[in-house]
Amino acid sequence: MPARGPVALLPRTPAVPIAEVAAETAQARPTGVGELDRVLGGGIVPGAVVLLAGEPGVGKSTLLLDVAAHAARRGETVMYVTGEESASQVRLRAERIDALAPELLLAAETDLATVLGHIDAHAPRLVVIDSVQTIADAATDGAAGGVSQVRQVAAALIAAAKKRHIPMVLVGHVTKDGGIAGPRVLEHLVDVVCQFEGDRHGRLRMVRATKNRYGPTDEVGCFELSDSGIEGLADPSGLFLSGAVDGIAGTCVTVTMEGRRPIPTEIQALVAASALSNPRRATAGVDTSRTAMTLAVLQARHGLQLHNHDIYVSTVGGARAVEPAVDLPVALAVVSAMANRPLRAGIVAFGEVGLTGDVRATVGIKRRLSEAARLGFRRAIVPKRGAEGIDVPGIRAIAVGNLAEAVELALEPGETAATRS
User: Which residue of 166, 179, 182, 312 has the smallest Cβ count within 10 Å?
Assistant: First the structure.
């Protein structure tokens, strides 16, 4: 006897030509927070579900409370559901960051059916769930935050958002490894996945999209977190530059790329004689393994005696500069610190350093140069390959093929082991 298959049903809505489908419902609406709109692709789309994940204490709730307040001040009804804090705790935070608005409704709930009832009763234009791991469905086995609970809760909330065309933001927890807690299907169900990053001891916060059905995934939003709230940084260069680069040994300015966004970053290095059999190598904000390879190239290819020195390399302002293009500024900062001579005034550098000492091509050279010129830098040391035909007004690009050329052109006049080589 043949197995029975699914029975065909008459569709409730007939299929229509794609050109006749209305596109207005998929137009993004600005959130009022420019840096978040940059990441989302212009705003949040009605019916879209955004998952915002980050470490505890990084500022997720503060950012979303600010977003909710902006929407409420436009006259839109906003529902903020908190499952982790009491309503009074959220109210105190809203008062501190000036997010009190009459249209901002607050509910402290952990039951899924009650949350859906709030949505039905108030018909909000925006819903924030803080967080999805604290909501539980009474009809599903397991404790809140478990795999089955998170899957069921997320599916019910997403269905409500799609049915009512309500944009919804879900806050997600992260694991020790930095991944989003819960089943992997959670990231597949939502429309947008954003990571909220930053050192909890610093001011800088970054939001980047790892999945976006409505916009790019190579944009980064920069924020500054303070006691009075969170504020978008359209120009974050002030956080990453000390303001006193010229004339100081051991410093080199570079321009890193966060997605499509060029961000100026200052690299600082300190080289000190060591009495230890294994000298210290400490880094902050840069890639440790790439820094170790760059130091090995300086010693093996250019004669710098680094084996008996402690070396410390760091970025300014808590910036993360981990791309290969940071190799060259790290090398120049170390050489400058070793020689106790500053780099030439008004110079920036970027490029990947190979194990043979060559300077390799990197991406986004023109964007990096444009950002450096905007900030007033006059010269840039760039890889020879990839810089052909690039001309940016206000800055002179000096193309180099190897590290020895870069050191000779970047350092103030004088002799070091690297320049002799």
Answer: 179
Q: What's residue 293's pLDDT?
A: 96
What is the rounded CA–CA span in Å between residue 244 and residue 188? Answer: 47
On whether the CB atoms of residues 140 and 147 are closer than 8 A, the answer is no
Q: What is the pTM of this model?
A: 0.81
Average pLDDT, the chain: 89
User: Which residue type does 384 have?
Assistant: K
The widest CA-to-CA distance across the chain, in whole angstroms, is: 92
What are the backbone dihedrals phi and psi of residue 252, each rounded to the nearest 5 degrees, phi first?
Answer: -150, 135
HEC assignment per residue over the chain: CCCCCCCCCCCCCCCCCHHHCCCHHHCCECCCCHHHHHHHCCCECCCCEEEEEECCCCCHHHHHHHHHHHHHHCCCCEEEEECCCCHHHHHHHHHHCCCCCCCEEEEECCEHHHHHHHHHHHCCCEEEEECHHHCECCCCCCCCCCHHHHHHHHHHHHHHHHHHCCCEEEEECECCCCCECCCCHHHHHCCEEEEEECCCCCCEEEEEEEEECCCCCCCEEEEEEECCEEEECCCCHHHHCCCCCCCCCCEEEEEEEECCEEEEEEEEEEEEECCCCCCCEEEECECHHHHHHHHHHHHHHHCCCCCCEEEEEEECCCCCECCHHHHHHHHHHHHHHHHCCCECCCEEECCEECCCCEEECCCCHHHHHHHHHHCCCCEEEEECCCCCCCCCCCCEEEEECEHHHHHHHHECCCCCHHHHC
* Residue 401 Cα to chain centre, angstroms: 31
- Write out pLDDT tens, residues 38-60: 999 899 999 999 999 988 888 89
Tokens linked to 156: 């019910």
pLDDT band at 106 (very low <50, low <70, confident <90, very high): very high
Q: What torsion do the CA atoms of 44, 48, 51, 57 make, to the nearest 10 degrees? A: 40
Can you give the pLDDT at residue 403?
Answer: 94
Q: What does the pLDDT look like over 179-232, one tens digit per residue?
A: 777 677 888 999 999 999 887 777 888 899 999 998 888 888 989 888 888 888
pLDDT tens profile 365-383: 999 999 999 988 999 999 9
Query: Is a pLDDT exceeding 60 seen at residue 252?
Result: yes
